[in-house]
Model the fold of this input.
Amino acid sequence: MALAMWRRVASSGFRTLVAAALVGAILLIPDRSSARPSTGTTAPAANDDEATGDAGVIVRSETVEVWLPESLRELASPVVRARALAEPDGLRRVLGRRGGDPRIALTTRCHRADGEHSDITFILRPLDVPDHLERLREALAGVADVHPGDVADDGQGPDAHLVPEGLLDRDQDQILATLDRILAEEQPEVTR
Done:
């Protein structure tokens, strides 16, 4: 009886060991969808025929637009924004004055390995999600101080835009269409 039990344990242990080795080998073998090349290889050049396999790889991203509801108009002011960012709870306090959880949008431009870019708009809930508050803080710290009559696109950071109250609570398609319309009205020469 002890011998039969030993054979059963040894057999199941061997099967477990073989299965673990196979899974480990599969996980260690890179494939075309790997985000980075394996050690000792270089990514293909942008004009190389094989570069299309890396077309979706994001090499750099930057926030290009900050969309604030009208009730947070004060954050568009460089003085108020600087004061809110200087104090640890300053931004949270400014956002909390509105009541509820204000939604704010950030448009991030993702630059791909093939030289193209894609814009992605995120809706943030900075009072409910701590990471969102930090992303907003970073974006606002980089907002260019643009005054009426200045050229808005100076390449120095994201542009701040005011949007109608409640827009960022709507359906995703409505939000994006309205943001595109606002951008086209403010900067007719910019195409996305």
Observations:
- Residues 54-145+154-186 form one domain.
- Residues 31-44, 147-153 have pLDDT under 50 and may be disordered.
- The two ends are 75 Å apart (CA to CA).
